[in-house]
TrEMBL record:
Membrane topology: Multi-pass membrane protein
Keywords: Cell membrane, Membrane, Transmembrane, Transmembrane helix
Pfam name, any one: BPD_transp_2
UniProt name for this protein: Urea ABC transporter permease subunit UrtC
Coiled coil: none
Any single Gene Ontology cellular-component annotation: plasma membrane
First-listed, main subcellular location of the protein, grouped into a coarse class: membrane
Alphabetized GO MF terms: branched-chain amino acid transmembrane transporter activity
Localization (cell): Cell inner membrane
Annotated transmembrane regions: 20-38, 58-90, 133-156, 163-181, 211-232, 260-280, 300-323, 335-352
Recorded name of the encoding gene: urtC
Length: 392
């Protein structure tokens, strides 16, 4: 009961978050209905391809949420969260590869096709157990979390911060990208992991499976948001924001600054790993390109455009930019890079607080003007009343 009251109190003061969660839950319910219940010729019918695309956007929104948690509320500009996202995706991809069995190109019941192609004679030890879904889910959480713990422990205990920490996170994901490109690592090398067949016995090509993955991604995003909002609304979150604003003073007051930074950083990495695991079965591939530092930098842009330190702003920014990216690549394939670059420049110039900050400031100005107008009307009415009393 106490934990439930904490969650409700955290969401009670979060109007924007409640709006986003309401729209998200409505999409989780209505989108599958529009696909399954309406015929393909109906104007409100949503194609299965579109649902898979929306599921990919929601997994990106989870990644943006994870970045906003550490950047907006802890002050750590992470340029390497793409690594945690990719590690979670690889953990799920390994499970999906083991599910192929003898249906692969080479028909080997144990070894994935790329291992047969490279003349591997046996399955590497770190692939053992990935034919079990529960172990894959455990690794989705454990591997990114453990890497974040080791990296964060070494970095925070060494008092690395600011731009130096950002460079270190970028170097981490770049090093992982180079490692995963090597064939001898046992993760598919340049081509990565692909040609997935099914998950939990259900074909990934079936419409119902794709819809189920979309629903799971939407619910996971909602749960992740509630967890993050509860954290930042708690005493731990207030201390984290104090660390963001004045780390030295917070440390002087006796708080375990390194421990708090480490805890929030690990939580953020776990959320990013889960997002990667939900991303892979919906797009059908995971390769070392997901480790590219440019991907992590792009996530930071999503958060900045949506509104840093709002949580729901990160979700909005990720959805807006990725939808714009898909639209531009279809309508204007030759100039979409310039269009997105212009969008980023304009948002920096005219939306320094992000879209959410711009809308919030606009609402505040309208509210202030309305109150000023009401007070002016009331004062004018009082003057008229006083004048009529004097005349009488």
């Amino acid at each position: 009961m106490q934990s439930k009251s904490i969650i409700l109190s955290a969401l009670g003061r979060d109007r924007g978050g409640k709006v986003v969660l309401t729209l998200l839950l409505a999409a989780v319910i209505l989108v599958p209905m529009a696909n399954l219940l309406l015929p393909s010729g109906h104007p409100l019918h949503i194609e299965t391809f579109t649902i898979s695309l929306m599921g990919k956007y929601l997994s990106y929104a989870m990644l943006a949420l994870a970045v906003d948690l550490v950047w907006g509320y802890l002050g750590i500009l992470s340029l390497g969260h793409g690594a945690f996202f990719a590690l979670g995706g690889y953990a799920m991809g390994m499970y999906l590869m083991r599910q192929i069995g003898d249906r692969g190109v080479y028909g080997d019941p144990v070894l994935p096709d790329f291992m047969v192609f490279l003349n591997w004679s046996e399955l590497p030890w770190f692939w053992y157990g990935f034919d079990q879904f529960w172990l894959a889910c455990l690794m989705v959480v454990l591997v990114p979390g453990l890497l974040a713990y080791i990296f964060g422990y070494l970095a925070f205990r060494s008092r690395v911060s600011g731009v130096y920490l950002s460079i270190m996170t970028q170097a981490l994901t770049y090093a992982l990208m180079l490692a995963f490109f090597r064939n001898e690592m046992g993760f598919g090398g340049n081509n990565g992991l692909t040609d997935f067949k099914d998950i939990l016995g259900y074909s990934l090509q079936q419409d119902t499976t794709k819809i189920a993955l979309f629903v799971c991604t939407g619910l996971a995003l909602a749960v992740s948001y509630i967890v993050c909002r509860t954290v930042v609304s708690s005493r731990l979150g207030r201390v984290a924001m104090a660390i963001r604003d004045t780390e030295s003073r917070t440390r002087f007051m006796g708080y375990d600054v390194d421990g708090i930074k480490l805890w929030v950083f690990v939580l953020s990495a776990v959320i990013a790993g889960i997002a990667g695991a939900l991303y892979v079965p919906q797009v059908g591939i995971i390769n070392p390109g997901e480790f590219a530092p440019l991907n992590s930098i792009e996530v930071v842009v999503w958060v900045a455009l949506g509104g840093r330190a709002t949580l729901f702003g990160a979700i909005v920014g990720a959805l807006i930019i990725n939808y714009a990216k898909s639209w531009f690549t279809v309508e204007f394939p030759e100039v979409w890079l310039f269009a997105l670059g212009g969008l980023f420049v304009l948002s920096t110039m005219y939306f320094p607080k992000g879209v959410i900050g711009f809308v919030s400031d606009g609402i505040s100005r309208l509210s202030f003007r309305q109150k000023a107008g009401d007070s002016a009307k009331s004062s004018k009415t009082e003057q008229e009343c006083n004048g009529s009393e004097v005349t009488s």
